[in-house]
## 1
Amino acid sequence: MHSHFKLIALAPLLLTTPVLAQDFLTPLQDMVDQFTQGSERPKPPQSTAPTPAEIAPVPRPRPPDLPSAPVVTPPVVAEEEGAPETPAPEPEPIASTERDRVYQVACPAVIQGLVEAEMAPPLSEGICGEHSPLVVTAVLSRGRMVPLSSPVTTNCQMASALPDWVADVDGYAEAMLESRLASVDTGTSYMCRARNGGDEASISEHGFANAVDVTGFTLEDGRKIGVEADWAKATAPEGRLLRLAHDAACGGFMTVLGPEANAEHHDHLHLDLGCHGESCQARICE
Ligand SMILES: [Zn+2]
């Protein structure tokens, strides 16, 4: 059994270093002979030339009579005398159509018919911009499309927040003024500028297509209700409608600024989805 353990101890060395195996072949054969004594297996014939394949995987020599693999050489194309030299093929460049493609993202609100909008090319002006801006022309309110007085350029988030708010105002208008909305009167949307009444270094959400200004509403009976003209009539239906519109916006947008916020907002409601607070969940409703 002593020789058995020797063999086991040597086996990994032999398996991993076949060159060294030659040095150990003769003593190893002796060990194998001792190891296999007494077993059913017939003893291999004693030989001075050991059979390495039985002990360790020694690379077999290549049979001398086999023809060596034919060397494949690329066909030589005879160049015509005086023909211009063919340059080596270069890696295929990315097709210009692929390189110039603008990767924009789709807006579910458009696909679901909640807003009528066209995708616009990316906007980029210094820090300002939006990669997938929409030009929104109408929003769905209670089963019909209500047009915007002028198209607004916004991001998908703003486009998605508008329909519910317009539907609220539409319902208030019908209840209080007995006429539905004919249009939402819109002002500034995308514009790269500092914040109104804010510090000069601070870019307005308008600069990220993340804000829309609403100047008022036109009813189906032709009446126009404007923030500038009607906000002050606090107890009249027009003034109440504007206040309800302001307050309803505070549920769907993150910033709502009206005439009571500051003098810059005397003639419109500013709506945006800017991030306030560490987790973007704080709202400003003034
Ligand atoms: Zn604004």
## 2
Amino acid sequence: MAVRLQTVGPHVIVVGAGIIGASIAWHLTRDGASVTVVAEENGGVATPCSFAWINASSGNPDFYFHFRRRSMAEWKRLATELPGLPLEWCGSIGWDLPADRREAFVAEQGAWGYGIEHIGRDQIKAREPYLAVIPDLALSVAEEGAVEPVAAARMMLADAQARGATLRNATVRGLIRTGERISGVVTSAGVIEADHVVLASGAGTPPLTASIEIDLPIETPAGLIVHSRPHARRLNGLVLATQLHMRQTAEGRIIAGSDFGGTAPGEDQHATAAALFDKVRNSLTDSPSLAMDFFTVGYRPTPKDGFPIIGNACDGLYIALMHSGVTLAPLAGLLASSEILKGEADPMLAPFRLSRFA
Ligand SMILES: Cc1cc2nc3c(=O)[nH]c(=O)nc-3n(C[C@H](O)[C@H](O)[C@H](O)COP(=O)(O)OP(=O)(O)OC[C@H]3O[C@@H](n4cnc5c(N)ncnc54)[C@H](O)[C@@H]3O)c2cc1C
């Protein structure tokens, strides 16, 4: 049975309730659309497995660096519109880069205005007094931070609902095409029609676009992250040690991977997690009761060239698929809403169109 909802603004279906779907749904609702979110998992699939570091760190070309940095500022704007978002601008200290990459990072991103500082042993010790081994030199970036991504996604969804959005727990099985336009979705709970459909469905997106012969060139590398039981404060910020990236969450869990993207799980995930957690324990002093609670294995939705895919794929269909989705969620939501509802295409989106793969 087809359900046509009564709409005030245009009716937009957002498929996906991870950090990207939640942000897009929230911005669309705030901007006057009538929004229906359809998702299997409220809070996302990759999102709960994320390290959730907000950054514009090393290795990003200028257009992508500026996009990420703008999104860092958008997190601050979003926090004023949604007070209580679990964000922490705790800063990072890192000594994981080889000397040549470290100095290239300082020279390049520093010249673009990123606040990178060299700090020595005493400053490192003062910042992170529980580190068992203090390096001679680290890079400090005070403007970086982290967010608790599932809690943030759920807050955005709850606020969108309070503003009139509808949440449906269902599987999207296909897209409805009317002439050249996508006009709705077929779900496990029936058909829903809309003026626009947004796919913010992470690694679940390619099968949906394949049904209308749109190929999404993505990879989904696996990353394992260990989570300790909640513990008294042992880390004050993001620590990017060689082969060990760690932070302590709002509820006191120390989470870690061999880098922020997680550790390759290998054949025996439990053994990989146990070995990784031993490294965490050995890297901190005065933590005899630190114990692993669980580990996650997430699949990072990553377009093949590493950059986001954001924009219209055809009439009525918008796609938002990216790695670093935790960093990019507020900007992706803001720009997607503006483009869908007002037809305003922000110039910063130009490098991120699907058409670049054509
Ligand atoms: C190990 C790891 C570490 C990471 N570290 C960082 C980091 O430090 N910083 C950073 O910025 N990013 C990081 N990322 C990336 C970031 O977590 C992701 O880019 C982001 O979570 C993607 O969010 P999403 O909402 O697009 O997808 P997801 O969270 O995967 O959500 C997809 C949503 O779509 C729904 N869905 C999919 N298919 C269907 C369907 N057919 N029907 C109905 N619903 C459907 C799902 O139920 C879910 O709600 C990391 C990721 C991983 C795995």
